[in-house]
């Protein structure tokens, strides 16, 4: 057992890793697929789930667990050398769980799944993974189905509302290489190196919807691609998770880092002239709005040469094709 400091944000809690191969020793030889399993709610027969996942042929299976797990992790890792557990505090956001899992993964590609999903071996066959590698996309989102094998929306297009807000429109006719603004439910096959270069999910954003929107818009504005692959199929075993699109404090950070940024042709910047509209719309106190805006300007300036476009042009030109 080892305890490692998370680097996803300066104040992140430490986490514990149990079992598996240490990535700093053997990453150079391991360039295939890792599976990272996120957990929510209770699911019986957890051991059966680990049996299914380790039988899929991936390099490893990393299960992100709360600190109060009730089953014998050491016993499971002795039985399955490909299985590794990471114990994180309960208050860590879903995006930070993904960040830690991908950071720890050995594989070049990392498949993010939840414990209430089922995946078939054909979805991660060597042929499918080869096609994904040839595309060189940041993230490949799967075709999602409910427990009755009915296809559900897994690709969403961005659209500005008449009041200057933002919404997403589900694209029901999912097809190969259809663009998605973000990976629904965090689920997808991520290029590990590209993901780490984007900075991953912002763990300062608590609301999962705005956390995914921030990651998706930032990735597209920085020239990366998130697309569908219908050969990769995932079934939910339970109810489809609800997306909370409430305009809350998480939205403010998303707004500053994405919707407020302007692109000059070679760099992004956050104009001073947009401060007052931001202050009036968000309901922050004046000192609070100044602090928030100042922080966002520093962040945009530090990343200014990463921008290849701005949110307005991405949304206006969105056609779903990659």
Describe the model.
It is a single chain. The chain is α/β, with parallel strands linked by helices and 322 residues long. It folds into two domains: 2-236, Alpha-Beta Complex (Spore Coat Polysaccharide Biosynthesis Protein SpsA, Chain A); 249-316, no CATH class. The chain is built from eleven helices and 15 strands. The chain has helices at 23-26, 46-54, 73-79, 94-104, 126-135, 192-198, 208-221, 249-259, 275-282, 286-302, 311-316, and strands at residues 2-4, 15-18, 33-38, 60-65, 83-87, 109-114, 117-119, 139-145, 151-152, 155-160, 166-171, 188-191, 226-236, 262-263, 268-269. The strands form three sheets. Strands 1, 2, 3, 4, 5, 6, 7, 8, 9, 12 and 13 form an eleven-stranded mixed β-sheet that branches. A hairpin with a 4-residue loop joins strand 14 and strand 15 (268-269). Helix 7 runs parallel beside helix 8 (249-259).
Keywords:
11-stranded mixed sheet, disordered N terminus, Spore Coat Polysaccharide Biosynthesis Protein SpsA, Chain A, two-stranded antiparallel sheet, about 25% strand, alpha/beta, about 325 residues
* Spatial shape: globular
What is the string of helix and strand elements?
A: EEHEHEHEHEEHEEEEEHHEHEEHHH
Structural class category: alpha/beta
CATH fold name of the largest domain, please?
Spore Coat Polysaccharide Biosynthesis Protein SpsA, Chain A
Mean pLDDT: 87
How many runs of DSSP E, i.e. beta strands?
15
Overall helicity: 25-40%
Uncertain runs: 1-11
CATH top level label of the largest domain: Alpha Beta
The radius of gyration computed from the alpha-carbon positions, rounded to a whole number of angstroms, is 20 Å
How much of the sequence is in beta strands?
15-25%
For the sheet with most strands, the description reads:
11 strands, mixed
Domains, number? 2
Under the CATH scheme, which architecture of the largest domain would be assigned? Alpha-Beta Complex
Q: CATH homologous superfamily of the largest domain, by name?
A: Spore Coat Polysaccharide Biosynthesis Protein SpsA, Chain A
Quickly count the helices: 11
């Amino acid at each position: 057992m080892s305890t490692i400091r998370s680097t996803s944000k300066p104040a992140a809690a430490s986490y514990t890793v149990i079992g598996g191969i240490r990535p700093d020793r053997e990453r150079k030889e391991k360039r295939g697929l890792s599976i990272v399993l996120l957990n929510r709610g209770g699911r019986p027969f957890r051991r059966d789930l680990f049996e299914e996942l380790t039988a899929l042929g991936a390099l490893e299976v990393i299960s992100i667990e709360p600190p109060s797990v009730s089953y014998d992790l050491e016993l499971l890792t002795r039985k399955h050398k490909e299985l590794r557990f990471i114990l994180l505090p309960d208050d860590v956001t879903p995006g930070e769980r993904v960040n830690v899992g991908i950071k720890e993964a050995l594989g070049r590609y990392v498949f993010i799944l939840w414990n209430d999903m089922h995946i078939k071996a054909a979805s991660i066959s060597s042929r499918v993974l080869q096609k994904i590698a040839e595309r060189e996309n940041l993230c490949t989102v799967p075709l999602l189905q409910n427990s009755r094998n009915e296809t559900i929306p897994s690709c969403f297009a961005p659209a500005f509302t008449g009041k200057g807000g933002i919404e997403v429109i589900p694209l029901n006719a999912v097809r190969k290489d259809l663009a998605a603004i973000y990976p629904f439910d965090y689920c997808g096959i991520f290029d590990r190196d590209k993901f780490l270069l984007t900075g991953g999910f912002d763990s300062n954003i608590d609301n999962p919807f705005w956390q995914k929107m921030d990651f998706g818009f930032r990735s597209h504005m920085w020239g990366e691609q998130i697309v569908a692959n219908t050969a990769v199929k995932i079934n939910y075993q339970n109810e489809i998770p609800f997306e909370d699109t409430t305009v809350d404090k998480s939205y403010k950070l998303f707004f500053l880092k994405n919707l407020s940024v302007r692109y000059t042709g070679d760099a992004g910047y956050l104009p001073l002239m947009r401060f007052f509209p931001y202050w009036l719309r968000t309901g922050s106190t004046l000192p609070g709005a100044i602090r928030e805006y100042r922080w966002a300007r520093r962040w945009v300036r530090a990343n200014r040469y990463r921008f290849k476009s701005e949110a307005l042009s991405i949304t206006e030109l969105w056609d779903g094709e990659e």
